[in-house]
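Input chain follows. Return structure tokens only.
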Amino acid sequence: MPHRFFIPPEWLTGGAVAIAGPQAHQIARVLRMRSGDHLVVLDDSGWEFEVHLLAVQPDLVRGEVVGRRLAGGEPHTRITLYQGMLKSDHFELVLQKGTELGIVEFVPLIAARTVALDRDAPGKKRARWQLIIQEAAEQSRRGRKPVLRSAMPFAQACEEASRSAGLKLLPWEEEDQTNLRGALRAAGAAGRETAVHLFVGPEGGFTRDEVDLARGSGLLPVTLGRRILRAETAGLVAAAAILYERGDLD
């Protein structure tokens, strides 16, 4: 299977490709690829381009496009995950595995129980988080990199979701009436759109006041079952269940 690399669109000019920077170094020095080898480049448009390498140097790799096709790794269901801020390594796990699953957008969420240390992470770690997303998208054969939004206060996120089309779900450990499968099947029967806005709290979860605010904004609290999941697990489990129910894991 050819190696895959996201590149800036301007590196593709007609049928020619010029790859520089860390990607060129990886191709030449780490992967030890040579003229005549093939790889796949992606310009974040949903298309993928098969490239025949013509010249390989650590600072510049040149090739020609020999094939173009739509990437097959993008799900039909578009999940935006509003994830309550977590300790750095836990949040990075969510970004990596969420990208592999097929989440299309991440919004770091500042909630009442977000600890002060975590609130500063989005600005300081953004470049690292973008790289984690890109590498996970390449590995999982995505055609687009998920969008990483700026951190957002909980109330603002609820207001944004209320103005957006699609299903708005908030997994909550105290909900005991509506389960995730029931909510998805009811939405499917009503012919709702494919967008899903998924709200997951930080360590400690959402407060009751936040859940009341969410309800008032049109979010639906749901249970994920009798077991209590960690904050870094809940969003991934819910996203996988949503994609399975919608047929995106077929």
